[in-house]
Write a structure and sequence with these properties.
Radius of gyration: 14 Å
Largest sheet: 3 strands, antiparallel
Number of strands: 5
Order of helices and strands: EEEEHHE
Shape: globular
Number of domains: 1
Helix content: 10-25%
Number of helices: 2
Strand content: 25-35%
CATH class: Alpha Beta
Distance between the termini: 30 Å
CATH architecture: Roll
CATH superfamily: Ubiquitin Conjugating Enzyme
């Protein structure tokens, strides 16, 4: 499993969103599972066509994944997620700290 943050553009500003990647034994033949990771960066998840009810990311890039290393790899996946979530952010707001 890999964890980290990815910067996206939201309303003219930058936001960092935590992600968790679960790399399967058959990678790179099969895509990794990618989730928003609230343990890294607590957030309020907004309804988004690219997220399921477990915050798993479901984007066309993952659905069309094939074993072509120069096209389908972790870097290409990060770029695709960043592009899609910058245009349709998966977060509504940061929770208020007490």
């Amino acid at each position: 499993m890999l964890r980290g943050k990815l910067g996206i553009n939201v309303n003219g500003g930058k936001r960092e969103i935590g992600f968790k990647f679960i790399i399967k034994n058959l990678y790179p033949s099969e895509p990794p599972c990618v989730y928003l990771d609230e343990a890294i960066n607590p957030l309020v998840v907004a309804q988004n066509d690219y997220l399921d009810n477990e915050n798993r990311i479901r984007i066309p890039f993952l659905q069309s994944w094939t074993n072509i290393p120069n096209k389908y790899n972790l870097l290409s996946l990060l770029i695709e997620v960043q592009k899609l979530f910058s245009s349709r952010p998966p977060i509504a707001a940061q929770p208020v700290s007490s």
